[in-house]
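Problem 12. The chain below contains 428 residues. Write out its predicted structure in token notation.
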Amino acid sequence: MAGLLIKNGRVVDPASNLDAVRDVLIENGKIKKVGVRVKGVGVRVIDAKGKLVLPGLIDMHTHLRDPGRPDKETIASGTRAAAKGGFTTVCCMANTEPAIDNPAVVKYVSDTAKSDGIVNVFPIAAVTKGLKGEKLAEMGLMLEAGAVAFSDDGQPLMGSALMRKALEYARQFSVPVISHCEDKGLSHNGSMNEGALSTAIGLPGFPALAEELMVARDTMLAAEFGQVHIAHVSSANSVELIRRAKRRGVPVTCETCPHYFSLTESAVKEYDTNAKVNPPLKTPKDLKAVIRGLRDGTIDAIATDHAPHNIEEKNIEFNSASFGMVGLETALALVLTKLVATKALTLKKAIEKMTVAPARILNLNKGTLKVGADADVIIVDPGAEWTVTPSQFASKSRNTPFSGWKLKGQVIYTIVAGKIVVRDGKLL
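Solution.
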């Protein structure tokens, strides 16, 4: 493999507390040197002047739909969407068909990713058999097969005793249980945030309390029994509950998604099913609380919750449409446009939440440009403006509410283990 020398770029590596113009030398798939006026012998030179040079992004919450739903996404298409969006590592959720609830399916995902994928893929295994919330899956064996955490995402663990057992078991391996916080008794049949708008437009409400009650329960359980990670935090009260838990020293981490700091419930006012997500989009107050939580460190990470659906499951009556939107190809640009350009977060803090933070939570040896690290690197033009055009997505699905939005920040190069997989914004 020929070496690469990335010159003159603004290198932002939160793991090294670095934000400066530097050169990056890559040899044998590893970061060889980061410094000023670095030289390399027989290497390909990329001039990154005026560009950002960043660790490859990590998405700790992706739905690849493989096995089972190749009409929505495959590992091949999903990893290409990831690469276009600047993600060099994705962690895929267990709600596939069949579920990732045994070592054989974990191995299938890992093997398929090695043969068909173009970025790193780490499976997140199910907590319970068939995601039914009844009996714990073979957690230890799935870790041995390559899983990095556990989650029944898409389905909450309603039984508190079962959640306790899952936390206790996962604690033996120092890995988190990722919790989809939803009280099904409260959210039942709801399709958007419960409030004045849902009443006005005649859609059944899904109260914020459905998320918040489970956040409260799971932080209390974590205080006693093990590490919990709260997925897709969307409400002001959830942010405050997690903030208080952290102050008490509870082993809890959490993530939010770009749609929760970019959109409010008004996005569904015209019954746009592409904006139907779980948990639902909420009020401007909640959006501001999510941004505050990102700023003060309550919210550790930004994940996509990339949830591809085909047109048959989205272009239907709102109440019947599936929850979820695609996000891998828009996430970084939304972060740069909605958080960094508005000065809600510094660039380094924003990139931390998409690199070193998810790596730390999931114990991944990724997310840094330190010497000796895997050469997972992206080069981004921060000033490039582009229009979200779903027909140009690498994903098999097009379900995004951001179609037509003008965003800033274009991924120019994506490099995985020293290999260029995206050049000039195009997949190779």
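Discussion. The mean pLDDT is 97. Students who got a different answer should revisit the alignment rule from Section 12.3.
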